Amino acid sequence: MTTETVLGFDFGTKSIGIAVGQNITYQASPVQAVKANDGIPNWNTIEEIIKKWNPTLLVVGLPLNMDGTEQPLTQRARKFANRLNGRFGIKTELQDERLTTTDAKARLYELGGYKKLAKNQIDAVSAVLIVESYFENQFGE
C-alpha cells in the first residue's frame, strides 16, 4: 500500500479547521485553523499548507442535519470543496461531519479541560475527526 497523505477541512464561515492524516495509521493531527471571511479563506495560506503537506487527497466535512438532510452550510461546504479541487487539481471528497464539533470538544476536554477549548483548536480537531471518519468509511478500521 502506498502512503497517501490526506488534508481534511472543517469548513466554516469564520474559520476553517485543517488537519493532516495518512492511510497507514488511519490517524490525523491538527494543522491549524485559517480565518475565513464569509466562508472564503486566504487562498495563499491554503496553498502554502497544501505545498507543505503535498496531499494526494483533500477531504471536506459536509455539514448535515442530524436526520441527514441538508442545511444552509451544506451547499457552501460543497462549493468550498469544488473550489479546492478547481484551484489545486487534487482529488477532493466530502465526508459527513455530523457530531464532529461535539466530539472535538469532548476530545479536547479529555486532553486538558476547558482551557484547551480555543475556537481554532476545536476547528482543527474537528478536521482531525473528519479525516479519521473518512478513513473509517474507506477502510473499515
Give a concise summary.
This protein has 141 residues and is of the alpha/beta class. Helix content is 44%, strand content 27%. The protein has one domain: 2-Layer Sandwich (Nucleotidyltransferase, domain 5).
Mind explaining what this structure looks like?
- The chain has 141 residues and is an alpha/beta fold.
- The chain has one domain (5-139): YqgF/RNase H-like domain (Nucleotidyltransferase, domain 5).
- Helices cover 44% and strands 27% of the residues.
- Strands 4-3-2-1-5-6 form a six-stranded mixed sheet, with helices on both faces.
- A hairpin with a 4-residue loop joins β1 (5-10) and β2 (15-22).
- α3 (100-112) packs across α4.
- The chain is globular and about 35 Å long.
- The two termini are 15 Å apart.
- The model has no long low-confidence stretch (mean pLDDT 86).
**What fold name stands as the CATH topology?**
Nucleotidyltransferase, domain 5
From N to C, what is the helix and strand string? EEEEHEHEHH
Q: Strand-residue fraction?
A: 25-35%
| Model regions low in confidence, pLDDT < 50 over at least 5 residues | none
Distance between the termini: 15 Å
- Under CATH at level 1, the class stands as Alpha Beta
CATH architecture: 2-Layer Sandwich
Q: How many helices in DSSP terms?
A: 4
Q: Care to count the β-strands? A: 6
Shape type? globular
**Mean pLDDT across all amino acids:** 86
Name the structural class.
alpha/beta
Task: Please compute the radius of gyration using only Cα atoms.
Answer: 14 Å
Q: Biggest sheet, in brief?
A: 6 strands, mixed
Q: Considering DSSP H and I runs of 4 or more, what fraction of the residues is helical?
A: 40-55%
